[in-house]
Structure formats: structure tokens, C-alpha cells
Amino acid sequence: MATTTFTAKDVQELRQRTSAGMMDCKKALEETGGDMDKAIELLRKKGIAKADKRVGRAASEGVVMSYVHHNGRIGVLVEVNCETDFVARTDDFRNLAKSIAEHIAGSSPSPLGVSRDFVPADVIERERRIFTEQAEQSGKPANIVQKMVEGRVEKFYKEVTLLDQTWIRDAEKTIGDLIKETSAKVGENVVVRRFARFKIGEE
Hints:
By secondary structure, the chain is of the alpha+beta class. The protein contains 9 helices and 3 strands. It has helices spanning about 10-20, 20-30, 35-45, 50-55, 85-90, 90-105, 120-135, 140-160, 175-185; strands at about 60-70, 75-80, 190-200. A hairpin with a 5-residue loop joins β1 (about 60-70) and β2 (about 75-80). The protein is flat, with a radius of gyration of 19 Å. About 30% of the residues are buried.
């Protein structure tokens, strides 16, 4: 197992050089013992850096996947988009859509949104104020308080956005990671557009 010898600055640099996500960069540095060049090579081999550069390309095809829990009390609809009808019909793409639908059924993501972009800025500011007041009560130095606040904001995102949630089938991956992996396999931009979760007796 590689020894972890890198800093947050290294993670940021790797992100800038590859356009990969923060968690992907952190994992790559962990796996390569902090070696920047090897981490870049690893991300390229996994296709993650390329997948991130696909973001922004039009994704107007796709599928609406449904999933009903075996007892018929929970149902999910999720729209997952890609660039072409050809990819929309592939097993990789449809398995991704099914996995996301099953995750939504089992984890009950907050209706605040698919990704961080969907969370209203005023909601984040409100939570940040609350976290700051709580952290300041600890009596710790300002720099420690700031780190505590940022940590709690990150945790909040993981609770209220689908892409930041840990996948129920693999604690080492988020739903966002799952999407990037599939994007790398199929060679197209893949986007979760929207989802709805229904449970008997709940509105």
C-alpha cells in the first residue's frame, strides 16, 4: 500500500492539471504515494480526466429508468442523459441508470438537487452561518474553526445532493464517481437530469 505523502495543495494542482474531481485526485495521489506524474498517468488510464473534459457537451439522449422496491412501497424515476441514442441503448449506460435508481430508492436523497449546482446559495450561506456559530463555541483558533466549518459544509453537501452521496453498493465510490466511470467507458458526457422518489404515505 502506498504511503500518503501529499498535501491539499497537491490535490488542487492535480485537479488543475487533469480537470478531474477532487476525490478522484485525492485517491490517485493516495494510490501513487503522492507522485504527481504517476497520479496523472493513473487518472488518464482510468479515463477520469477525459471524462471530466466531456462535461458541457450536449447530452440530449438517454433513458428514464424506473425502479420499484420489491414490496411495492417505494418507487423511483430517474432521467439519465448521454449524447447519442447508440450509447443510450448500451448495457453500460442502462446498468448505470438502474444502479442510480436503486441507490435513490435505498438512500432517499434530499430533494434539494442532483448536484451542488442545484443547491440554492442562500441555503449554503445559512448552513455555513450555523456551522460557524457552532464551531466558534468550541473555543478553538480561527484557522481550526474554518476547517471545522468547511468539513461540515462538505458533509452537508453529501447529505443533500445525489452526486456527492456514497454509493450504497460501494463505500469507496460516490454516485458522481460511478457516472465518471461510465462516461469513460462509453466515451460520452453522462448526466443525471432529474429524479423523483415515491414512498407510500409520504408526500
